[in-house]
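Hi F.,

I've been meaning to write this up properly since the lab meeting, where we talked about keeping a consistent format for the predictions we share between groups. The idea is simple: the sequence comes first, exactly as it goes in, then the C-alpha cells exactly as they come out, then a line or two of notes. No screenshots and no reformatting. I'm using this chain as the first example so we have something concrete to point to.
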Amino acid sequence: MIKTSESVLKGHPDKICDGVADYILTELLKQDKDTRAGIECLIKDELLVIAGEVSTKAVVNYKELARNCLEDIGLNSDEFEILEKISVQSSDIALGVDIVVQGIKESCMVMLKVVLKSSCHYQLYYQENLQ
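Output, unedited:
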C-alpha cells in the first residue's frame, strides 16, 4: 500500500479557504452553540466563493466575516470578489445529524457510567487494601 500526504503553506488557497470556513463557523457557534453548518469555500484568482447549508439562530454577514478573516491573515480583502450562497440546512440532513448526535450522547453516557463504576470499584479496592 502506498500512503501519501499533502502539506500546503500559509498563503495556499486551500489554507485560506479552511481559515475562512473556520472563521465563519466560530462566529456562528459564538452566537448559537447548537449551530449546524456545512460550509465550503474556494478561491480562484481574486474570486472567493462561500457555499453551504446552515441551521442556526445566529445572525451573521458571511461576506463581512470572510473579509475580516482575509484581513486577519494579511490579505487585502478589497482585492477579492466574494460570492456567497448559504441556504438553510435541509431537513433530511438535520434529522440525520439529530440521530447521530443522540447516539453519540447515549454512547458517551454509557461509557461514563462504566468508567465511574470502574473508578468506584477501584477506589473501594484501594481503600480496603490500604487498611
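Notes:
DSSP finds three helices and three strands in the chain.
The helical segments are 13-31, 62-72, 91-130.

If this format works for you, I'll send the rest the same way.

G.
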